Amino acid sequence: MASERRTKIREYIQKHGEASIAELSSLCGGYSSMTLWRDLKKLEQEGFIRRTRGGAISVHRVQSGPEGLYSQRALSNTQAKSLIAKAALGFIKPSHSIYFDAGSTIMELVKILPDEHFTIITSGANIATELSQRSLFNVTLIGGQINSNTLSCSGPQAEAFLDAINIEIAVMATSGYSVSNGFTSGIFSEQQLKRKVIEKAKQVIMLMDNTKLDRSLPYTFADMQDIDVLICDSALPGSVQNEAEKCDVQVIVG
């Protein structure tokens, strides 16, 4: 019963963009506000909605631009991002040259890195700031133009900088994935940078939460065959799992 009620609530919010507790009470046949708030909390943890003062809003409306504001994305789907970060931690080795893409999921990962000697390159201005507080880390922020939405550096300067470095492990983020269009970004210059990082890296680890599935943005920066490891918070749909197996990609579910 509870799962059916939450499904009805999720579908209503996804269709209408938002809903108040009063609307949901009418939709579900008069359940108490306490019960409905518990349902919304569960749906928020699963990454489908964000709770507001009087109800909830669809996560897709929060991310209505090509790339949602970082401050908004950092607050959405936090449980899933934490699971992904913990699963990714085992792939990060102190002796390697590591590239961290920009993104809220990657921020969750860098926060839990152990206090060891790491050599890190990143395009994320906020990620570089977070890492700079750790005395054992050697951190380089690539140059270029910073995007106020994503807090990521990109552009010709950033791409030129990559020519001078070696990358053993690249930990990447995506704004969307579909079997037909691959991993996508909403910003052309960031797509160009991501492509170049993936070309240079010996191992590519993609972090992707469930809200990115079946979502395509304008610019493709990688296909499944271009990565080595895909880390998610929940089981993949059959078509995506089949594509990963066909491309010999290791899939990890956090």
Describe what this molecule looks like in 3D.
The protein has helices spanning 2-16, 21-27, 33-45, 59-62, 70-73, 78-88, 104-111, 125-131, 156-162, 188-200, 238-246; strands at 18-20, 49-51, 55-58, 97-100, 118-122, 137-141, 145-146, 153-154, 169-173, 176-178, 182-185, 203-207, 219-222, 229-232, 250-253. The chain is an alpha/beta fold. The chain has 2 domains: 2-62, Winged helix-like DNA-binding domain superfamily/Winged helix DNA-binding domain (Arc Repressor Mutant, subunit A); 71-253, Rossmann fold, CATH 3.40.50. A hairpin with a 6-residue loop joins strand 7 and strand 8 (153-154). The longest helix is centred in the first third of the chain and has 15 residues, at 2-16.
Annotate the secondary structure layout.
Blueprint: H1 2-16, E1 18-20, H2 21-27, H3 33-45, E2 49-51, E3 55-58, H4 59-62, H5 70-73, H6 78-88, E4 97-100, H7 104-111, E5 118-122, H8 125-131, E6 137-141, E7 145-146, E8 153-154, H9 156-162, E9 169-173, E10 176-178, E11 182-185, H10 188-200, E12 203-207, E13 219-222, E14 229-232, H11 238-246, E15 250-253
Parallel strand pairs: 4-5, 4-9, 5-6, 9-12, 12-14, 14-15
Antiparallel strand pairs: 1-3, 2-3, 7-8, 10-11, 11-13
Helix pairs in contact: 1-3, 6-7, 7-8, 9-10
